[in-house]
Specification:
Blueprint: H1 18-21, H2 31-34, H3 37-49, H4 51-67, H5 73-83, E1 89-93, H6 98-110, E2 116-120, H7 150-159, E3 164-168, H8 174-181, E4 186-190, H9 201-205
Parallel strand pairs: 1-2, 1-3, 3-4
Helix pairs in contact: 3-4, 4-5, 7-8
Length: about 220
């Protein structure tokens, strides 16, 4: 997207980051300075007074403050679940990440988390064509190719009354559908990036070398 079609400036344009340190001044386009004070107060009251939100917010801050740079994300998720009192965990996994998910669940059990339900993305398996996907948009046209089913994943975990759902390797878009339909709060352990071995930030780190094409002003396809 070219800068000339953007509607104003935002946090990605800011080189001051005064909202982080409060040691300077805000730029003219700062969203913190422009925020409605009554709305900010309303949200801060939620963090303090809503029991459900307050518990999650406090647990996040405590984990960051006490274990910064000490625990892996996997450990942080387990600790977060325990601190918010999540009794049953849901694990929504991509079929392509099931080997990693099996290790993940073994670690859960080793850390005392015995009550969980894992659901793969291919649950309720149907052919992509039956889900309205054209044959030419399959990886292998005119063959059975199972469609992912993130909504059914979410509904199964809803029916199981999970307290926290953990996403492992869901496709772009399927993760959005899952979180839209999940009744429990969601955290992501791993995301899908087939090219970069589930490390999408590598594309950002590589824009001055291997992935210079990402900064070209053209369409992806």
């Amino acid at each position: 997207m070219s800068n000339d079609v953007r509607n104003g400036q935002d946090c990605s344009d800011c080189m001051v980051c005064n909202c982080d340190k409060r040691t300077g001044s805000y730029p003219s386009f700062c969203l913190t300075a422009a925020a409605d004070e009554s709305e900010v107060k309303e949200i801060n009251d939620l963090y303090k007074n809503d029991s459900f939100i307050s518990k999650m917010y406090a647990a996040s801050a405590e984990i960051e403050g006490l274990y910064y740079g000490k625990l892996t994300r996997l450990e942080e998720i387990i600790l977060f679940a325990k601190k918010i009192g999540a009794k049953k965990l849901g694990v929504a996994s991509c079929m392509g990440s099931m080997a990693e998910t099996r290790v993940f669940t073994k670690i859960l059990e080793a850390k005392g988390v015995k009550d969980y339900l894992c659901v793969t993305c291919k649950v309720g398996s149907v052919d992509k064509a039956d889900a309205g996907i054209p044959q030419e948009h399959k990886i292998k046209p005119d063959q059975f190719e199972p469609a992912c089913n993130p909504i059914l994943q979410a509904r199964i975990l809803n029916d199981a009354h999970t307290d926290l759902n953990i996403l492992i390797g869901l496709c772009v878009g399927h993760d959005a559908l899952f979180t839209m339909h999940s009744q429990a709060p969601c955290v992501t352990f791993a995301v899908k990036d087939r090219v970069l071995q589930q490390n999408p930030m590598a594309a950002v780190y590589g824009v001055n070398s291997y992935y210079k094409r990402l900064l070209r002003e053209d369409d992806i396809v």
